[in-house]
Amino acid sequence: MAYSKAQRRQLLTKAIAQAKKHNLYFISDVIAYLPISRQTFYDWEFDDSDKLKEVLQDNKIGVKVALRKKWQLSDNATLNIALYKLVGSNKERRMLAERQEIKQAGSIEQRIRDMTDEEREKRMEILKKKLFPKECELVVVKKKIDF
Hints:
The chain is mainly alpha-helical. It has helices at 5-21, 27-32, 38-43, 50-73, 77-87, 90-97, 108-114, 117-131. Helix 1 (5-21) runs parallel beside helix 4.
């Protein structure tokens, strides 16, 4: 079907109106609301329309601002870090991204050997409470371990 220039202008106006009405972000979404094919949309150079680009950009900016505001008011740590990464400086982003390693002093066996009997008993009690918080009390046979 052949369209006149007036009909093309009308379709472009409709595209802009649909983008505003449905808060669209992408040209492919706008095309879905029009009675023309993707190829026709590009052949008529609707994608070069400054007004359509402006509406799509305004929609994107609006949703970004709303999300950032939500993230700022949220207690969710993941959202807070995401926002910090967006607004932080390059140095701050690098600091967040760096892995921090905890180095142990000596092997586990060496650390156990260096513990006193009292320290070992305290550690065993802590482990029992963590592993069996609601279980009945476990009977532990005390045996000196020689390494």
